Amino acid sequence: MAEYKILKTEGRAKRAEFKTVHGTIQTPVFMNVGTVGAIKGAVSTMDLKEIGTQVELSNTYHLHVRTGDKLIKEFGGLHKFMVWDRPILTDSGGFQVFSLAGLRKIKEEGVYFQSHIDGHKIFMGPEESMQIQSNLGSTIAMAFDECPSSVADRGYVQRSVDRTTRWLARCKEEMQRLNSLEDTINKEQLLFGINQGAIYEDIRKNHADAISQMNLDGYAVGGLAVGETHEQMYHILDEVVPHLPQDKPTYLMGVGTPANILEGVERGIDFFDCVYPSRNGRHGHVYTNHGKMNMFNSKYEMDPRPIEEGCQCPACRHYSRAYIRHLLKAKEMLGMRLCVLHNLYFYNHLMEEIRDALDAGNFAEYKKMRLEGFEEGRINSKRG
């Protein structure tokens, strides 16, 4: 069984470790997003180890509609299929059903929708999501939920959240059943529930109280970073996180920028994930301690320096800004790959520094210093 142990706290910020069947996760942690079992940008699992990745995140919906979870089970699960021996979190598919499926019908039993790839009809409910994730054999499975729009009206959000609570009870029951079966790949699979409620703080808090009673392995805050302001997101976290169990890991889904992460850690978040570092990297946008840089910028054409002086990522250890810019301009895949590797290393290294600051008891100073550096870089880049 998993064990979550808080090592240090500073205000609401937590420094912890989470023991799982696939290894111990040091938190706060950033999960590197490999939607279909790979990080976009030609990044291998060997690369992930080299850049300090602790947890890889894959997507239930995408793996179900393309290649198929049953085929992956034949290979012994996602860990063996993608050759990764550290923890994997699979999200439930709920968010993709609501963001990708053009035509969908939500019922109490689940959601009827069409595949975004070829239009074929699919049904997914709590039991189906758990079965797919069990076939994948991930370390942590996310409960199947509805992610209502942040601008949805109050009545709709309340009905949606009530249904998500009922779905969570069904997820828990189905996972217990699956973990007891003989041919289940990972009988120690963990279940995280998801708090929803758009930007209605009372609905959020009531929902957090309700799901906290279910004694799950961890708890996520979902449905943020989908259109509301950063201030609204931070306010919801201030209100909701205290209503979730402090002795369980807390996961802020799909967030975000380095500044969002620092703010999230301060509010008690353990787990983060976001496509920003890989997506931005594929477009030549790289993160540094002084903000973002656009590698297509002509000022880097003759620049012999690495993306960031002192960075130990595979790109910065070997290549110049001029060379990386040349690759990107020539549409050479290596340029994209090097930028993605740099960005993921930057995020993983940021989390390491956050953990060190919490260990040393000076996270507040560290956060202030980092945010000032990002802000200064933003102002300078506007001038330059």
Question: What is this structure, in a nutshell?
Answer:
The protein is of the alpha/beta class and 384 residues long. 44% of the residues lie in helices and 19% in strands. An eight-stranded parallel β-barrel has the order 4-5-6-10-11-12-13-14, surrounded by four helices.
CATH top-level class of the largest domain: Alpha Beta
Number of domains: 2
Determine the mean pLDDT.
94
Based on the coordinates given, report the CATH architecture of the largest domain: Alpha-Beta Barrel
Main beta sheet: 8 strands, parallel, barrel
**Strand percentage:** 15-25%
Low-confidence stretches: none
Task: Output the number of helix runs.
Answer: 15
Secondary-structure-derived class: alpha/beta
CATH H-level homologous superfamily name of the largest domain? Queuine tRNA-ribosyltransferase-like
Helix content: 40-55%
Major beta sheet, strand line-up: 4-5-6-10-11-12-13-14
Task: Walk me through the structure.
This protein has 384 residues and is α/β, with parallel strands linked by helices. An 8-stranded parallel beta barrel has the order 4-5-6-10-11-12-13-14, surrounded by 4 helices. α11 packs antiparallel against α14 (333-360) and α13 packs across α14. α9 (230-240) links the parallel β12 and β13. The longest helix has 28 residues, at 333-360. It has 2 domains: 3-274, TIM Barrel (Alpha-Beta Barrel); 284-383, no CATH class. Helix content is 44%, strand content 19%. Residues 254-260 are annotated as: RNA binding. Residues 13-373 form the tRNA-guanine(15) transglycosylase-like domain. Substrate binds at residues 91-95, 145, 196, 223.
